[in-house]
Design a protein that fits this description.
The structure is a single chain. This protein is mostly beta strands. The protein folds into 3 domains: about 240 residues, no CATH class; about 90 residues, Fusion Protein Consisting Of Minor Coat Protein, Glycine Rich Linker, Tola, And A His Tag, Chain: A, Domain 2, CATH 3.30.1150; about 80 residues, 2-Layer Sandwich (TolA/TonB C-terminal domain), CATH 3.30.2420.10. The chain contains 8 helices and 24 strands. A 10-stranded antiparallel beta sheet has the order 5-4-3-2-1-12-11-10-9-6. The protein is elongated and about 85 Å long. The relative contact order is 0.13.
Length: about 425
C-alpha cells in the first residue's frame, strides 16, 4: 500500500497512532503531510469523505476538547479523553480509564508520553483520533467496505441513512445526519453534528467492536482556548522513542514472516449448514509480539467464530521493529475455511464420545416421562475441547431440552493425533429410565 498519510494530531503522536488498512503495506512510520479532507465527490476518484471536520490542521483556532467514552455492552466501562490543542507542534492529550491511561504532550520536537501499558487498545486509539481528525479512518477504508456518507449519497441532513446503493433499505437517525466509514479494525460512525469555528464537528463518534457491541465517544466540551496555559505543554524529561507506542500495518504475507508458528486455524466441525467459505479477521499485536485483540470482519459461520478467535489469540510473533524501535502491529488475515478439513470424517459414536467426556451427568427428565424412550444429541467439539453447538438427532418429543441441558454440563477433550488436537462431531444417545 502507499505510505500512510497521517497529519496533525494523528501524525504528531510520533508514529504512535499510525492507522491504516492492514491489508496494505506500510513503508514508514514517519508522519507525512496530508491535504485537508475532501468535502465531497466520487469515491472512485479520490477516496471517501465525511462532513466531520479536521480540527488539527493549521489555521484552526486553539481548542479544548473533553469526551466521555462508554461501552454499549458494559456501561460501567468509562474513559475520559481530554485534548488541549494549540498547533500541530503543540498539544496535549490524556486518556484515563481502568484499562489504559496515557498522558501525551508534544511541544515542538519534544515529546513526553506516559502509558499505563505498552499497548493502546484499538478502540481508544481510533476514537482519540476520529473525534478531531477523520482522515486516518478514511485512509484505512478499502473498496467494498461499508460506506454511508453524505458525499456518496447514502446519508443526508435529515438523518436518513441507506444501506444499499439503490436507496431501498433505509433508516433514520434521531440526531440528524449520521455517516459510517467501515474501515477494517477502525469502523466509525459520526453523528450529532454541531458547528464549531466555522466547521461541523460530530459530538457523537461510535467505534464498532463487534455485532451488538461498540464504544461511544460523546464530546461533552469543545471550546476555543482564549487563554493558553503554557504549563500544560511543559516537558521536563523527553520520552525516548522506544518507550512511546507506535503502530504499523502489515499485510498478511509480512505478518506471516514475523510469526513464530504457522498462521493456521483448526476449524471446528459444524453440524449443519455451510461448511466451506471465506472469512477474515483484524488482528492487533503488542510490541512484544503478543496478540491483544481480534475483531471479526467477515464471518461466514458464527458457530466457529469463538474457536477461531481463541486460536488467533494464542499466536506469537517476533517484535516488529522500525528504526530499531518495537512497534504495535495491526493486520487483516483472510482464510479459506473448511470445517471438514480436520478431525474424523464421520461422527463419533456414543461410546467413543463418552470416552472423551468427563463430568458426565444424566438428564433430569420431567416427572411421569415413560421409560424406554430414546433421544440422540449431536454435538460439535472444537480443538480446545469446547462444545460449540448441539442439535437434536432422532429424539422422542419433549426430551431434547433435558438431554441438551445435561450435555451442556459435560467437559470434553479433543482428539489428539500425532500430538495435534483435533475437533470432532459426535452423537450421544440417551434413554429414559
Amino acid at each position: 500500500m502507499p505510505k500512510l498519510k497521517i497529519d496533525v494530531l494523528a501524525a504528531v503522536i510520533m508514529g504512535s497512532l499510525m492507522i491504516g488498512c492492514a491489508a496494505r503495506k506500510t513503508s514508514s512510520v514517519s508522519p507525512q503531510p496530508q491535504p485537508p479532507a475532501i468535502a465531497s465527490g466520487n469515491v472512485e476518484d479520490h477516496g471517501p469523505s465525511v462532513v466531520q471536520a479536521v480540527l488539527t490542521e493549521p489555521g484552526t483556532p486553539p481548542f479544548h476538547l473533553r469526551a466521555a467514552i462508554t461501552e454499549r455492552a458494559d456501561f460501567s466501562e468509562h474513559v475520559d479523553l481530554e485534548i488541549y490543542w494549540v498547533s500541530p507542534a503543540k498539544w496535549r492529550r490524556t486518556i484515563a480509564s481502568q484499562e489504559f491511561s496515557q498522558t501525551l504532550v508534544v511541544n515542538g520536537d519534544d515529546v513526553f508520553e506516559q502509558d499505563s501499558d505498552d499497548y493502546i487498545p484499538i478502540g481508544l486509539q481510533t476514537l482519540a483520533i476520529a473525534v478531531v481528525d477523520p482522515r486516518p479512518i478514511l485512509d484505512a477504508w478499502r473498496p467494498g467496505d461499508q460506506l454511508i456518507t453524505k458525499a456518496n449519497g447514502q446519508a443526508d441532513e435529515s438523518g436518513k441513512m441507506c444501506f444499499d446503493p439503490q436507496g431501498k433499505i433505509c433508516g433514520y437517525s434521531r440526531s440528524g445526519m449520521m455517516e459510517t466509514v467501515g474501515s477494517p479494525g477502525h469502523a466509525v460512525t459520526f453523528s450529532d453534528y454541531r458547528p464549531f469555528a466555522n466547521k461541523r464537528v460530530a459530538r457523537l463518534v461510535t467505534y464498532k467492536i463487534d455485532q451488538g457491541d461498540s464504544l461511544l465517544a460523546r464530546v461533552t466540551t469543545l471550546e476555543e482556548m482564549k487563554n493558553i496555559d503554557a504549563s500544560l505543554f511543559k516537558i521536563q524529561v523527553q520520552t525516548p522513542k522506544e518507550a512511546q507506542i507506535g503502530t504499523v500495518a502489515l499485510n498478511q504475507t509480512e505478518l506471516a514472516q514475523q510469526a513464530l508458528q504457522k498462521l493456521e486455524i483448526i476449524w471446528p466441525q459444524v453440524l449443519d449448514g455451510k461448511t466451506t467459505g471465506e472469512t477474515s479477521y483484524f488482528v492487533s499485536i503488542d510490541k512484544k509480539g503478543q496478540v491483544r485483540e481480534v475483531l471479526p470482519l467477515s464471518v461466514a459461520i458464527e458457530r466457529a467464530d469463538d474457536s477461531a478467535r481463541r486460536q488467533i489469540m494464542r499466536w506469537k510473533f517476533k517484535p516488529v521493529l522500525r528504526n530499531r524501535v518495537p512497534m504495535q502491529v495491526e493486520s487483516v488475515v483472510n482464510f479459506d475455511f473448511n470445517t471438514r478439513a480436520y478431525g474424523p470424517t464421520e461422527m463419533l459414536t456414543d461410546v467413543e464420545a463418552r470416552k472423551l467426556a468427563s463430568n458426565v451427568v444424566d438428564p433430569a427428565f420431567p416427572a411421569g416421562t415413560p421409560s424406554g424412550l430414546s433421544c440422540a444429541v449431536r454435538v460439535a467439539v472444537d480443538s480446545d475441547g469446547g462444545l460449540i453447538e448441539q442439535i437434536a438427532g432422532e429424539c422422542a418429543p419433549g426430551l431434547f431440552m433435558a438431554c441438551s441441558h445435561a450435555v451442556g454440563k459435560w467437559k470434553f477433550s479433543p482428539i489428539v493425533q500425532d500430538g495435534k488436537s483435533l475437533p470432532y462431531r459426535a452423537e450421544i444417545a440417551f434413554k429414559t429410565p
